[in-house]
Amino acid sequence: MDNVTPGKVVSIITSFLLVTSTLAVAARLSTKRAVSGKTNVDDGLAVMALLCHIGSGIAVCVLDANGLGSALRGIDVEQRTRFAKSAFAANLLFIATLCFAKLSIILFLNLITRQPRHRLLGNSLGAFIILWSIVEFVAAAFTCKTPATWDIFGSRCFDRVTFWYIFGAVNIVTDFALIALPSYIVLPLQMRAARKWMVISCFSTRFLDIMATGTQFAYTANLQDSDFSLRMWPWVLISQIVLCLSIVTSCVPYLRPLMESLPSGMFMSDEIRRRGEPLISRDRYVKTSDENHVLRSRIIPA
Fold first, then answer.
1. Which of 126, 196, 203, 237 could be disulfide-bonded to 106 (CB atoms 3.0-4.6 Å)?
2. What is the model's pTM?
């Protein structure tokens, strides 16, 4: 047990988190195909988020092998170079993972609503997430001056603590938006109250992401510590937890009981439109004697 360093603990937990994320995405894809018979662009984004998370996890394991959780004085020059490059890659993939995971939720919401105001809100939020992620990605890519923009051991880097505080704050705001938007879409629907709140509660699991990001704030200052290789491991660990939670909570709405509780036709609308068949209006629902939700038989043009 004497050889178990903080970095090794981070690597072990990261491996477990990667397995969890992989299982969540696999369950999402299999459930989607079982219920709707196909996958969509939102599923592709979930896969992209998973791939970025895997890349970030690999980078964290390289950090462990090169001194994560160890005093800076015990890390040689070659290890410092590998350490800095791995931290650089992990940070970029951290930003990309969160972006793809959040966009997959927004595209999913676009599948279950055709209300123009709902889609406008979703598209606006998606555009903001994309633009903000690009800005953060570029800023993270140039944390330090060229040509060695990855060299966090140099003295020519901007304030990384402030950078990650801002990133975390915006991350929390967008997570709140991803809870509020589905609630705004679902609440007006004429569904049984129990089903309605089940849908909302599934999207509300993103409160876990918010809690994890808030916890990460407590350790962000360690990134600027004079011996940050020793003290940054809690921040690195929580960043992997944030990524895992972001992917898992983006897959929770694809649980089969939830998808089957939504009004019928929501997941077949794109296929029907592609075939050029008429659509049944989805803006009105009635409750039959067996309490299933069916569509009113009002036909509208495709």
1. 126
2. 0.84
